Amino acid sequence: MPFDPESLTYDANGLIPAIAQDFHTGEVLMMAWMNAQSIMKTLEDGHVTYWSRSRKALWAKGETSGHLQHLREMRIDCDRDCLLLLVDQKGPACHTNRRSCFYTALRDGDEVEILRPVED
């Protein structure tokens, strides 16, 4: 059955959360927002494009940093209101220069940094 991005459930702003996961390791890298246009662009060219809520524009991951995400597979959750992007990540995924945006753990009520920035 052909995919129709309109079959997804978007929020009031026309956005859907997208979780990027490393295709090879399963590590969760980041969460960002997509709209129908960014989904179609990602599927067309294989490079992950998100929707920037602050800039109100398409945002090609790694466009300025070089830390590209190549889409290996896109999955839709059972409620059709969240996407899982299995990607090949080039360089750090996080704007803080860490491999993953999920670098702070809560342990015994304390925040603990578990990933350090990647050194160039």
Automatic annotation (TrEMBL):
<comment type="similarity">
    <text>In the N-terminal section; belongs to the PRA-CH family.</text>
</comment>
<dbReference type="InterPro" id="IPR026660">
    <property type="entry name" value="PRA-CH"/>
</dbReference>
<comment type="subunit">
    <text>Homodimer.</text>
</comment>
<comment type="function">
    <text>Catalyzes the hydrolysis of the adenine ring of phosphoribosyl-AMP.</text>
</comment>
<feature type="binding site">
    <location>
        <position position="77"/>
    </location>
    <ligand>
        <name>Mg(2+)</name>
    </ligand>
</feature>
<dbReference type="GO" id="GO:0000105">
    <property type="term" value="P:L-histidine biosynthetic process"/>
</dbReference>
<dbReference type="InterPro" id="IPR038019">
    <property type="entry name" value="PRib_AMP_CycHydrolase_sf"/>
</dbReference>
<feature type="binding site">
    <location>
        <position position="101"/>
    </location>
    <ligand>
        <name>Zn(2+)</name>
    </ligand>
</feature>
<comment type="pathway">
    <text>Amino-acid biosynthesis; L-histidine biosynthesis; L-histidine from 5-phospho-alpha-D-ribose 1-diphosphate: step 2/9.</text>
</comment>
<feature type="binding site">
    <location>
        <position position="79"/>
    </location>
    <ligand>
        <name>Mg(2+)</name>
    </ligand>
</feature>
<keyword id="KW-0460">Magnesium</keyword>
<feature type="binding site">
    <location>
        <position position="81"/>
    </location>
    <ligand>
        <name>Mg(2+)</name>
    </ligand>
</feature>
<protein>
    <recommendedName>
        <fullName>Phosphoribosyl-AMP cyclohydrolase</fullName>
        <ecNumber>3.5.4.19</ecNumber>
    </recommendedName>
</protein>
<dbReference type="InterPro" id="IPR002496">
    <property type="entry name" value="PRib_AMP_CycHydrolase_dom"/>
</dbReference>
<dbReference type="Pfam" id="PF01502">
    <property type="entry name" value="PRA-CH"/>
</dbReference>
<dbReference type="GO" id="GO:0004635">
    <property type="term" value="F:phosphoribosyl-AMP cyclohydrolase activity"/>
</dbReference>
<dbReference type="GO" id="GO:0008270">
    <property type="term" value="F:zinc ion binding"/>
</dbReference>
<feature type="binding site">
    <location>
        <position position="94"/>
    </location>
    <ligand>
        <name>Zn(2+)</name>
    </ligand>
</feature>
<dbReference type="GO" id="GO:0000287">
    <property type="term" value="F:magnesium ion binding"/>
</dbReference>
<keyword id="KW-0378">Hydrolase</keyword>
<keyword id="KW-0963">Cytoplasm</keyword>
<comment type="similarity">
    <text>Belongs to the PRA-CH family.</text>
</comment>
<keyword id="KW-0862">Zinc</keyword>
<keyword id="KW-0028">Amino-acid biosynthesis</keyword>
<comment type="pathway">
    <text>Amino-acid biosynthesis; L-histidine biosynthesis; L-histidine from 5-phospho-alpha-D-ribose 1-diphosphate: step 3/9.</text>
</comment>
<keyword id="KW-0368">Histidine biosynthesis</keyword>
<keyword id="KW-0479">Metal-binding</keyword>
<feature type="domain" description="Phosphoribosyl-AMP cyclohydrolase">
    <location>
        <begin position="30"/>
        <end position="103"/>
    </location>
</feature>
<feature type="binding site">
    <location>
        <position position="78"/>
    </location>
    <ligand>
        <name>Zn(2+)</name>
    </ligand>
</feature>
<dbReference type="GO" id="GO:0004636">
    <property type="term" value="F:phosphoribosyl-ATP diphosphatase activity"/>
</dbReference>
<dbReference type="GO" id="GO:0005737">
    <property type="term" value="C:cytoplasm"/>
</dbReference>
